[in-house]
Amino acid sequence: MESVLGQTFGDLECIVVDDGSTDDTARLIASFSDPRVVSASTPHIGVSGARNRGLDMSRGDLIAFLDADDRWRPGKLERQVAILEESPDVDMVFTNFVRFTAKGKWLPDQFTYVPELAATRGEKAAAGGIVLPGDPFDFLVSTGELAAWIPTIVVRRRVTESVRFPLGVAICEDLHYILNIASNSRRLAYLPEPELEVRRHGENAYEPEDVGGNLVSVLRMLEKDPRFAGRASFRFRLGKELSRQGTRLARKGEFRRAAEVLGDALRIRESRPLAVKAFLAFPLRWLRGVLEWN
């Protein structure tokens, strides 16, 4: 909250959703006398439900998010708003970020893991920002690592007005939301410098080993939407993630499930070579698995 209220861009409302916490969160919220603070309580409905409650309460023309264990750097909003004001056709601006630990160790910045950004030549914008060419959805769905994390974005209200986070999804719900608002956006921009600090600790909801299956599940949810199902970029990403999941299952010896998943991947023309490669990686084990299955 201090990192929000201390922003150099001060025309904001700070909506705090206390999702059924059992610590002293309510007291800490009440200790802020700043009139820009608005709070609400929810009965432990999960991250998606809590964010949706904040969206329903919001009144501004721009929307931004911040998780309870992270913090914004002071000039974040000011720099992002400058880009949006200079470029009326840009609907979403995201930033780089860094992770830090309780011991004060700083880990590599996020864009280190998103080589697609360095490989894409964009236009220079205000505050050192870069406006990306092409379709926002196609770009974001094609990055191996999600480029635009929820706590980094500032998005125009018009593109998120009808979009909400999926309930009951604990991991990768951010991808669902980001791709939906990207599909409503005209252009996308980013700041290459870190403007968010993400705290890494033992209770983080986002752990790499938990992501694979959840990512496939979210992509399957999006596949039901005709806006996405016919896009080549989306179909390639879905097939790619199915191939990866099949490989993970095969390495664990779960060949029947792996065969089912890779069978689905083979049906997607855009990424079929990846599925074939995944099958060929375990030739003898597949044969044994198929014989045991039959």
Keyword list:
Spore Coat Polysaccharide Biosynthesis Protein SpsA, Chain A; 7-stranded mixed beta sheet; alpha+beta; 2 domains; 294 residues; 9 strands
Detail the topology: elements first, then pairings.
Blueprint: H1 2-5, E1 14-19, H2 25-30, E2 37-42, H3 46-57, E3 62-64, E4 71-72, H4 76-86, E5 90-101, H5 115-118, E6 123-124, E7 130-132, H6 136-142, E8 154-156, H7 157-160, H8 173-184, E9 187-200, H9 208-223, H10 226-229, H11 232-251, H12 255-266, H13 272-280, H14 283-293
Report on this model:
It is a single chain. With 294 residues, this protein is α+β, with helices and mostly antiparallel strands. The protein folds into 2 domains: 56-200, Spore Coat Polysaccharide Biosynthesis Protein SpsA, Chain A; 230-293. Helix content is 45%, strand content 17%. Strands 3, 4, 5, 6, 7, 8 and 9 form a 7-stranded mixed sheet that branches. It has a two-stranded parallel sheet with strand order 1-2. Helix 12 (255-266) packs antiparallel against helix 13 (272-280). It starts with a helix and ends with a helix.
